[in-house]
Design a protein that fits this description.
Layout lengths: L1 H5 L10 H18 L4 H16 L1 H4 L13 H6 L12 H7 L17 H12 L40 H12 L10 H12 L6 H9 L3 H12 L2 H14 L17 H12 L4 H10 L8 H6 L16 H21 L18 H11 L6 E3 L8 E3 L9 H42 L10 E7 L6 E3 L5 E3 L9 E6 L45
Antiparallel strand pairs: 1-2, 3-6, 4-5
Helix pairs in contact: 3-7, 9-11, 12-13, 16-17
């Protein structure tokens, strides 16, 4: 149970609802403790974010159209745009009340303010348009360190003061009270169990599982069901889906032909990481740089498939280097969105307007990825539509193949050992044989021309003549392929080698033999066998 409610297994907060609520509760508590109640709290919560989103783009620190600046109290209050205590006399209110197609409506670009937003501004101005002296522009929550907040204490007269059962419930109750809401009544046991199953495994409970829980819907039984579901393989399959969406996982390349891409091993790695409760720091490192770890395992190299999921453009008009650069940009933007919680794309062209990232930061991050190979290129430069996929890859095997591979490697090891022993034995035999030859022959080997007794050919028109020197002269028009059978007389017993010579002769085209040039005929010996008769 503690793991479900308060500790993220290994995914970012967006993938763990329970853990996400804990951190959000911390942030909400910190905000309310840091800001004073009343007008200051209203300004920080309702007014400043509204001005920031609707006004500062044209009337902020970087740009002041019409000489008007609204991101500081001096500019806002001394410009006459706001008359404290009198919203109907404030130019700001007049402008935001105008219809969308009016020439003076504000904001001039984008959607007009909703009725609720206009009322929030009117209420703030009516209360005196207070800009707290100690107010500081809040940093985006993703850039601020989370701080533990004290538990809110329900009012003694609150009819739901007994509703909280866990620490997070106190924050949820306070937020509901601020919004004028009350907790919903407890869900029926069958509804609660269905929600639990769908949340943890993506599958509903079976009738037998439901009957078991209905027989004992206690908190202890509920916690036991949670523990059981966390151990099921379907847990990793269910929670891998949101992460694979963030990783832009697909089994194809994503453009035009959309060819098959073998990246399923990365999908299985994510599922295993979740089911094994891998810590988030290791989960991050192995996906971004698993192949760079010392003595990286196959699993760690597979984890880097996270950034091989980029779309690959193999359109006939695409340029391989351009596609590679687009993949680099995709990797930077995806890394920023997932692990930094910001959109990095803005800094690709200019310093980020609202987040602390510059163009220099962007391209320094891009440099980390800018050593990748081209993943798709033209197989034939003369044919733009001829595409081949290249780039780093690794062989993978399923469990059955892995077992077979281990068996084969064991067998190969035995054979190599036998081969080594045999090679040593042959080396010794060779030395002995060489010594025997040296002892038996104290002179250089002699060559002798063999006496041709008979010559036969399969060719229909292949006349031949045995010459005085023992050679066979072939004339006429031999076929492209032929088989010659030559019977010779042996005059020596100790024969160590046979040699066949292709000779020249005046009666052959170009004096032959040749390799198929314009004059000499082609003569190639492709196979030779010898048999001893008698």
């Amino acid at each position: 149970m503690p793991r479900l409610e308060f500790t993220p297994l290994c995914l970012p907060l967006a993938c763990r609802p329970a853990a996400l609520w804990v951190l959000l509760a911390v942030g909400i508590g910190s905000t309310h403790c840091a800001a004073a109640d009343g007008a200051a709290s209203q300004f920080a919560r309702d007014v400043f974010p509204l001005l920031q989103s609707a006004c500062f783009e044209c009337h902020g620190a970087g740009k002041q159209e019409g000489g008007l600046r609204l991101d500081i109290p001096v500019g806002l209050l001394e410009s006459g745009a706001v008359v404290p205590g009198k919203p109907d006399e404030s130019e700001l209110i007049r402008r935001v009340r105008l219809p969308r197609n009016h020439d003076e409506v504000m904001p001039a670009v984008g959607e007009t303010l909703s009725r609720e937003q206009v009322v929030a501004l009117e209420r703030w101005i009516a209360a005196g348009a207070k800009w707290p002296e100690d107010f500081e522009t809040p940093r985006h929550w993703s850039l601020a360190s989370p701080r533990k907040a004290p538990l809110p204490t329900p009012d003694a007269n609150d009819p739901d003061r007994q509703w909280p059962r866990r620490p997070i419930d106190f924050f949820a109750l306070k937020r509901m009270r601020d919004a004028g809401l009350r907790p919903s009544p407890p869900a029926a046991p069958e509804t609660l169990l269905r929600r639990l199953y769908l949340d943890l495994t993506g599958l509903p409970p079976t009738p037998a599982e439901l009957d078991r829980f209905l027989a004992d819907p206690s908190d202890v039984a509920y916690e036991q069901v949670v523990d059981q579901l966390l151990q099921r393989p379907q847990f990793g399959e269910r929670w891998a889906r949101p992460w694979l969406d963030l990783a832009r996982y697909a089994d194809s390349h994503g453009f035009q032909r959309d060819d098959l891409r073998e990246v399923w091993a990365y999908r299985d790695w994510v599922i295993r990481a979740l089911n094994e409760d891998m810590p988030f720091d290791r989960f991050t490192i192995e996906q971004l740089a698993g192949d760079l770890l010392p003595d990286a395992t196959e699993s760690q190299r597979i984890a880097t498939g996270f950034h091989r999921c980029t779309p690959t453009n193999v359109e006939a008009g695409s340029l391989p280097e351009e596609t590679r650069t687009e993949q680099l940009i995709d990797r930077v933007n995806t890394t920023g969105a997932i692990w930094l919680g910001v959109t990095m794309e803005c800094a690709q062209c200019h310093d980020h307007k609202y987040d602390p990232f510059t163009m220099k930061d962007y391209y320094q991050l891009l440099a980390f990825f800018n050593n990748t190979e081209i993943e798709a290129d033209r197989a034939n430069p003369q044919q733009p539509s001829s595409i081949r996929f290249i780039g780093p890859s690794m062989p993978l095997a399923n469990p059955r193949q892995s077992e077979q591979r281990e068996q084969l490697q064991s067998t190969m090891g035995d054979l190599k050992r036998q081969q080594t022993l045999r090679q040593k034995a042959l080396a010794n035999d060779l030395d002995q044989w060489a010594q025997q030859l040296a002892d038996a022959s104290r002179h250089a080997p002699m060559s002798h021309a063999l006496e041709v007794l008979e010559f036969r050919s399969l060719g229909k028109d292949d006349p031949h003549r045995i010459l005085d020197d023992g050679s066979v002269l072939l004339t006429g028009s031999p076929p492209d392929k032929d088989v010659y059978t030559v019977t010779v007389q042996l005059r020596h017993d100790d024969i160590r080698a046979l040699r066949i010579d292709a000779l020249t002769h005046e009666k052959l085209p170009g004096k032959g033999p040749g390799r198929g040039d314009p004059v000499r005929r082609n003569f190639i010996l492709s196979e030779f066998t010898a048999e001893l008769d008698g």
